[in-house]
Amino acid sequence: MKPVIIIAISVLIVGVSVTSISAQSSMDIPSWVKTNAVWWGEGQISDSEFLSALQYLINNELLKVGNSDTDVLEDKIKNLETENIKLTTENRVLGIDNARLKGIIDLKNSRENYVEEEIDTSQLTIQELKEQSVTWDYKDILRNEEHYKGKIIYLAGSIDTVIEREDYGDWVLLEVQTEEYGAWDTIFYVWHDGSRVLRNDTIGAYVVVDGIEKRETLMAGSYILNPIGTSMYLTCTSC
User: Fold this and answer.
1) Could you tell me how many helices (H) and strands (E) the chain has, helices first?
2) Is pLDDT above 60 for 133?
3) N or C, where is the chain less crowded by C-beta within 10 Å?
4) Mean pLDDT throughout 158-186?
C-alpha cells in the first residue's frame, strides 16, 4: 500500500496526470522514501524534504513521468523563451525611439540659436529667401554639417509622417522624403508652424538648416543620419 501512497502524494505535489505516472514494485522503493512519505503525511517533515525523496525516485527511474507531460513543459519553456526574445526586442526598439526623440527635442530647443547666429530670416520675403538660398546635396549636408548650418535651402518632397506632441507647442515635425534620390533613407526633418499639412502631401519649402539628427538602428552600433531644419516658408504643391 505504501508505494501507492507515495504515487498519490506525488500526483498532488508535481501536478501531473495519474495515467502518466508508473512505479516499480515495492521492493524497488527504498525504505527511507516510504518512511518520508509517512512522516510527510503526518507533518513531521517539510514539503521540500519530501520533494527531495520524489526527485530521488524520478532520477532513479523508480517513479516515471510520461512523455506527454514532459512535452508540455518543454513547450512552455520554449514559449517563454520566445516571449523573452520578443520583449527584449521591443524594449530595444523603445530605447532607440526614445533616443531619437530626445535628439529631436534637443535640436528643437536650440533651433532659435542656430537661426540667430547665422542669419536673421524672420523678415525675409519669398524673393529674398530665394536669393539667399544655396545649392545643396543631401549627402554633402551629412558630410559637412557645419558648412550648411544656418544656411537657407529650397527643399521639395513628399511628407512621410507628421509628428505632433504637446511639448512642441504650435510646431509640428515633418518627415519629408526628398526628391533628390528617391531612396528610403533620404528623409529630411522639417519644423513647421504654418498651415496644416498631411501625410503624402507634396511640398516645397525654404528651410534653414539646423543640423544633423542621428538615429540608432536595431543593429547594434549602426545608425542613420538625417538633416533637420526649420521652415521659413512652406507651400503644399499637391493640395
Assistant:
1) 8, 7
2) yes
3) N
4) 81
